[in-house]
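Students often ask why we bother encoding 3D structure as a string. The short answer is that it lets us treat folding as translation between two languages. Here is a chain of 121 residues written in the first language.
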Amino acid sequence: MSHVVSIKTRLHDPAAISVACRRLGLTEPTHGTATMYAGQTAEGLLVQLPGWKFAIAIDIQSGEVKADNFSGHWGDQVELDRFLQSYAVEKCRIEARKQGHVVTEHQLQDGSIRLQIQEGA
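And here it is in the second language, the structure alphabet:
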């Protein structure tokens, strides 16, 4: 039986954040304070996206991501979207494996990813 799921991503799992970074060839996230435009700051796990002037800051308690790309002038939204997608995929894989399921990943032509999760090993 097949199910289609839409996910609104909240980033609460530091392990899945790290795996998403490795998947995309990014440096490991570090805990700290990101300085953004006009001296604004955001605390959390910091991830430097390719071509972004400022690191994004992930508050794992709330799951929120603070990012400043100045409407694309300081970073391409595609990079943030790619990171969020990778996090969602990795989090799904982690949770499915915890329950003993087998996960198969399919990259689609439009850039989306289809995960097939089967019960049991």
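Translate back mentally: The chain has a mean pLDDT of 91. Keep this in mind for the problem set.
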